Amino acid sequence: MTQNDFLKKIEDILPANASLVNELSEILEISQDSAYRRIRGSTQLTIDEVTKLCRNFKISFDVFDEIDINSVTFSYLKLENKIESFNTYLEVMIKDLNLIRNAKQHKITYACEDIPIFYNYKYPLLGAFKIFYWMEAILNNNDSEGKKFSQNSIPEQLKNGGRQIFETYLEIPSIEIWTDTTYYSVIKQIEFFWESGRFENNELVINVLSELAQLLKDIQLQAEVGHKLIGSTSESGQKAYYELYFSEIEIGNNCVLVDLGNTKSVYLGHMSFSTISTLNKTYCNLSEQWLNNMIKKATPMSKVSEKLRYQFFRKAFTNIETLKQRVLHS
Predict the structure, then answer these.
(1) 293 and 323 together in one domain
(2) pLDDT at 85
(3) The model scores a pTM over 0.85
(4) Distance CA 113, CA 131 (A)
(5) 168 inside domain
(6) Are residues 34 and 139 located together in one domain of the fold?
């Protein structure tokens, strides 16, 4: 990759109202004239300057090596079993989504092993439960060990961060690929914690399941109208366009392709809800080919395929209602 290509990649990431010259000047602490010389190529970026730019825009060094197609560098956020670590996790996600939303071109293609993490935060109780589950079951958080889930289990700061994540995702055009099992993991998580006595009371279990059902109704409506919704009705306002596909092929892992025009990145799920990411051009192009192939073999559920869409979500609602009845009669 040439210096010119590298700077174009950064320019792709910048908001529409941002100037590459100003960004270089500010981040590298150089004059605008010096920034122009680097853009023109008359002055070469130093290794320290490249490092600063890569760190600021979360670009890995392997973007400069397009020869070794068998080697890919990924970035990840180390999480600890502390609530502060989870707050950092949310802050990084907000920053990444804002960067995507503000780019001149932006689109997300999401192969969903689970319901996309952004949706969990639309409803406060469901979002709080998911955070509680992740911190307890995955991170082994000492503060929540042995405690039961209640409406006050999660600090407001984390709930507010989650809400920002959801609202930002609303503004990014997205294609999602779901399978028969995409929604099932969260039902099993709720069931497991209920059977383990980790809910404060059964009413709370019912309320979490009700929010999950409403969330799925919202996604069903999004698929019907073809755009993301601010509220729970098609008249409540709209955000970015939305496409939903049903795949009979199992996905196996959450995979997100971010397309910013000339620049692409891939986020892969690992350790249940964490992600690793890369801008490696070869890997991103291969991921794009795989996702496009998945879409070609999948059935669209946006605007068309009304019968399939109805049957798909009816199955989810039936599973939720079955668990509700078990809880009510326990």
Answers:
(1) yes
(2) 77
(3) no
(4) 18
(5) yes
(6) no
